[in-house]
Design brief:
By secondary structure, the protein is α/β, with parallel strands linked by helices. The chain has helices spanning about 85-95, 95-100, 115-130, 145-150, 165-175, 180-190, 210-225, 240-245, 260-275, and strands at about 5-15, 20-25, 50, 75-80, 80-85, 105-110, 135-140, 155-160, 195-200, 225-235, 245-250, 280. The protein has a single domain, classed as TIM Barrel. The radius of gyration is 19 Å and the shape is globular. The chain starts with a strand and ends with a strand.
Length: about 280
């Protein structure tokens, strides 16, 4: 019997989160509680309820918010569906022509894919057997034993590097970063290509001390392994609007942050380039 995974979204024709045209599969559940999370609906590991006020007709067909299927306008939705590997694989195979022509593939994201290791490994292995490029977008807060199961089936890792200071990391994400930094070294030594993804949060990780520590660690990872790119992801507040729509499930705390200026972003990019690191905005 193949394992099932809880998935809260599948996006076709994605052009981010890996090379080429991609199928992005969003896994439910995340062990971190980042205050800037842009997918808060994916934090709880189980299916939940989402309410979109702009679609509501005020008909009260849903009454006590327990029957989303009763909503005629789609204002009330279930967030998260249990799927087996073959269901997701068949969706991916329908896109394979686009993958092959563009150098694309499937990206497992979330949430946090490593929270569902049995399903993730089975899905990645099935995709690789069909010649589909596989990417895993991960915060890396997971046991090393899980990561070692995933590495052989992964063509590319998109790995978060959020905050270098352990105390700050715990303050803003709910956990320290020892496991994450250790797992980044494991990926680097594995030889699998990987990119670093850093959400740029003013007042948190855009300080001189944080940027210097991040650069030094990235240079070490580049020396050890196949680091392809650093993706700077300037903070945006889309997650706040999503958070307000969560009716049932974990409702994560959202901090009050601002979007960094373009001047600040370009200055950081320039400094990373100057030190020998390939860096881009977004991706």
């Amino acid at each position: 019997m193949t394992p099932k995974g809880c998935i809260f979204d599948i996006r076709r024709y994605a052009i981010h989160d890996g090379p080429g045209i991609r199928l992005n599969v969003f896994f439910k559940g995340c062990p971190l509680h980042c205050q800037w999370c842009h997918n808060p609906e994916g934090q709880d590991p189980l299916p939940g309820l989402i309410f979109n006020q702009s679609r509501c007709l005020g008909c009260r067909a849903c009454k006590d918010y327990t029957l989303p299927q009763a909503c005629p306008s789609g204002a009330l939705e279930t967030c998260g569906t249990w799927m087996d590997v073959d269901q997701v694989l068949q969706t991916a195979l329908r896109e394979k022509l686009f993958f092959d022509r563009s150098g694309g593939g499937i990206t497992c994201t979330g949430g946090e894919p490593l929270m569902q290791p049995g399903f993730l490994v089975s899905l990645l292995a099935a995709c690789r057997e069909k010649g589909i490029h596989t990417a895993v977008d991960t915060c890396l807060f997971a046991p090393e034993t899980v990561l070692l199961q995933v590495i052989p089936h992964t063509s590319l890792f998109l790995a978060d590097l959020k905050v270098m200071d352990p105390a700050l990391h715990k303050q803003y994400t709910g956990a320290d970063n020892f496991t994450i930094l250790s797992n980044l070294l494991v990926i680097a030594r594995s030889g699998v290509p990987f990119a670093l993804r850093t959400p740029l949060i003013p007042g948190v990780n855009d300080t001189k001390a944080e940027l210097e520590a991040m650069t030094a660690f990235a240079l070490e990872l580049q020396r050890l392994g196949n680091l392809t790119t650093i993706h700077l992801l300037p903070y945006h507040n889309y997650g706040k609007e999503k958070r307000s729509r969560i009716l049932r499930g974990r409702i994560p705390f959202q901090g009050n942050f601002t979007t960094p200026s373009e001047q600040k972003v370009q200055a950081i990019l320039k400094d990373l380039y100057r030190q020998g690191l390939h860096a881009v905005t977004g991706g």
